Protein 1
Amino acid sequence: MPELPEVETVRRGLVPLLEGRVLERVEVLDERLVRPIAPRDAEQLLTGRRVLRLDRRGKYLLLVLDDDLVAVHHLRMTGSFAGPAAEEPRHVRLRYFVEGLAGPVRYNDPRRFGTLDIGSSAEITAYLDSRLGPEPLGPDWNGDALYERLRRRSTSLKAVLLDQRVVAGLGNIYVDEACFLAGVRPDLSADRVSRVGAERLVAAVRARLQEAIDVGGSTLRDYRGVEGEVGGMQERFVAYGRAGRPCLTCGNTMRGARIAGRGTTWCATCQPTNRARKLG
DNA sequence: CGCCCTGTTGGGGA
DNA sequence: ATCCCCAACAGGGC
């Protein structure tokens, strides 16, 4: 379930478990998890290394290890971590046996879309920089930056916001949420979003991501945090998953359609154009 | 019970 | 540049 706020929630949950500690043993249970390295080689590479710190870049989770080594997890659709105190998940793909902990930290992933890349800090930096644009909550991203990107694209606004090279960390949920908050239709051609619209979108993305981080992310279905906790964001969605239900602002029925290949929800009344939205 | 559809992501091919 | 399909599994509707 990991978009940026969920990955950030996982990162924070892992800090007390991993940061500063030595990986005494690592078990890779899924042959295809670590790419393009053989599972046994990955285990050997990681064993005995100390976790200096946990970082996040977009939706990627970084274990910065000693000896200039970085392990990068991407949770894709269904990856999650379970701490020693959490119940044993049904689809454990990797176990970190960590110095001083009662049990292993387990990586779980039913669909097996998640990935783990291991490399030097220079290799990982190059890998991430080639795929990711600025951090949405960082200083490098603003209305002008987004506007300049949008005006050169003929596809939908939604497709552009989902492009990780434009801004790193947005997924299907928060794009719909931000478009609703900004009052801009997600199916609008990107090059028709105004400068003001771009400004509003940046503010909406920031507000929505920060709110989700503050309440511990959204936990869809039976996903839980590292210690089994439930995030509070799922009950705060104003657009995502609300197709066919009344708009929380105006009461009209929310539209649902397939945009950029993804299920998309918006309110035709509150998101009519890229112009300022009337407040209710 | 089976079949069909959907899905929080990203990569590759057309 | 853009779009479609795929990876592999769970859950819901019929």
Protein 2
Amino acid sequence: MNDAPSVFIVDDDEQVRSALTFLMESVGLQAESFSSAHDYLEQFNASKPGCLILDVRMPGLSGLDLQARLSAETIHPPIIIITGHGDVPMAVRAVTAGAVDFIEKPFNNQSMLDNVHRAIELDAKQRGESSRLQDIEKRYNELTPREKEVLQCVIEGKRNKIIAAEMNISQSTVEAHRSKVMDKMLADSLSDLMRMALLLKLIS
Amino acid sequence: MNDAPSVFIVDDDEQVRSALTFLMESVGLQAESFSSAHDYLEQFNASKPGCLILDVRMPGLSGLDLQARLSAETIHPPIIIITGHGDVPMAVRAVTAGAVDFIEKPFNNQSMLDNVHRAIELDAKQRGESSRLQDIEKRYNELTPREKEVLQCVIEGKRNKIIAAEMNISQSTVEAHRSKVMDKMLADSLSDLMRMALLLKLIS
DNA sequence: ACATAAATTATCATATATTCCAATTTTCCT
DNA sequence: AGGAAAATTGGAATATATGATAATTTATGT
């Protein structure tokens, strides 16, 4: 799970792949290259840290297509788009869609390395946040429907008495649910629970 | 305060200004144009809603310079950059720095209007969130130092007894501070207070 | 039909928080 | 020095939450 970060390189041009691989390895970065977006997707593993250098113009799935696919994933490596014949609208689209960079070939080696390092740092940060979030989501999904209802009321600041009235159940029941929620979510205070609810976007 | 949104146009080219003004007014949008970034800054009023169409290449302050200045403001209209001789790196920089669009001249009138409408909607949304935040900030700043300390502990989920021990004061005092905090912040429950604390970024 | 999880309720004891009240001491500004 | 705001404390009554324990009723799926 917690491997060293890789620089994933997706380009149909063998020259570019080997040049980039050489560049990355020259500074001790692990590189993995693919000749098509499809090849990359096949081995894609959300838990592998790193960043992705992606050519726009490729046979089959284009770089922007791949970018769109990856955006649907909850977590994916930051994307650096490279292109031989880029234009402004394409760059705007790529960056707006979440690419961290859009670089024209031929590129400067040093600035490429700078960008890669920045992207890898960003990935590490996102990954840390995301793994915490996934833990919380996992626990949340183990709540029963009723417990989720009570949780929703709790984070809205309602008192047990009110919740009981709204749900037409006794206060004891609410207390029971509430207590289970705290246990299952591993929350040790209300504010702790609220923080989790925020990450889960249960809050308006 | 709550005026109709304006389209602010900043371009040193009189032709462009009048063309854009005409375009905006043709769909019922209010337009205000300026021949330099400096002129715009002079009349800049954070409370005026709308969006900003900004030329990059201008004598004096450039569009990107103005963008940087505005980014320092807590709230500013969304920026649509327009340019005659744009290149990819410039577009990437502008979008990365927060511009909502980067459009080359000559542009398509309809797509420009679409972008303007989208930007104005975004501005309205940001403005709504921001005014709520300002209310909360105002109330927060009326708290005494001691009350702020207690608030910090409360949102960390500490019980009054613990807070009293940590601050070396009696539990009664903590209760007094806490009660005042709830009053002053107009919070009617702990979760309410937590939500505010989040917006104030008092939470890790 | 049986087993299991979920939902429901209750009681008792304790711990905490909230809300009144009133009072003293500190600090800071004019 | 005088006054205002802030910080401090205590008491007493009330409301709420928590925690442990136990028991009943309802689904749910095999």
Protein 3
Amino acid sequence: MKYDFTMDQLCPATYAFQVIGGKWNLPILAILSENECIRYNELKRRLTGITGTALTNCLKELIDYGIVHREQYNEVPPRVEYSLTQSGKELVPLIESMVAWGQKNIVTR
Amino acid sequence: MKYDFTMDQLCPATYAFQVIGGKWNLPILAILSENECIRYNELKRRLTGITGTALTNCLKELIDYGIVHREQYNEVPPRVEYSLTQSGKELVPLIESMVAWGQKNIVTR
DNA sequence: ATACTAAGTATATAAAAGTATACTAATGGA
DNA sequence: TCCATTAGTATACTTTTATATACTTAGTAT
């Protein structure tokens, strides 16, 4: 391994895991990767079991990480659309190799 | 994205993130990837800040996932050596692409 | 007037993950 | 005899992460 991330607090791999980790981040990224853009409540409906609080927090985090873009239209009732940014889109093939590894190596305990 | 991991409890990508997630799993994999095999206390010394309890738990988990192999020699004082299994080794290039993504896309908040 | 909508916020609570501390075994060395 | 060593276990505790519930805003439809 070329990069030593053992001791480094700002290690890029740890960072990537922070971005995609957590209970809902990966499912959110999956849905966003399949839609050019999607509204808050539609996202919530597809993420069976998520609460509004959780969805809001996750989206905020992903926006702060520069993975997700938020577009707000000042209408009533409000319309807010979420989409992947460029760096979010670059994460997708990476997640796909995770899927491939998982499919090959999963161990049911 | 070809695989739908939104609703699936046993989704391969979620599984992969479980395996590498947690505070110490990634640093442990990094050290193991750089050593053919390594003893418990040497691993502990290199993982600055980890407690024995935490290291033991993580190693157990990684062994259960089939990522790490444990070889015990019945000597006194005891000697136990840890190494990556084949599926652990297959995880390394994947982590390396995480590093690459992180280096390119990291956002300091 | 009242109810309904979307996209949240605020607050409290529960569950999960991680940490600290003390303890164990068998042997070798001072 | 007493201390050090390795690779842990057992227990209690703290911190972090996730959830449940009630409330908000402004306009539109009944």
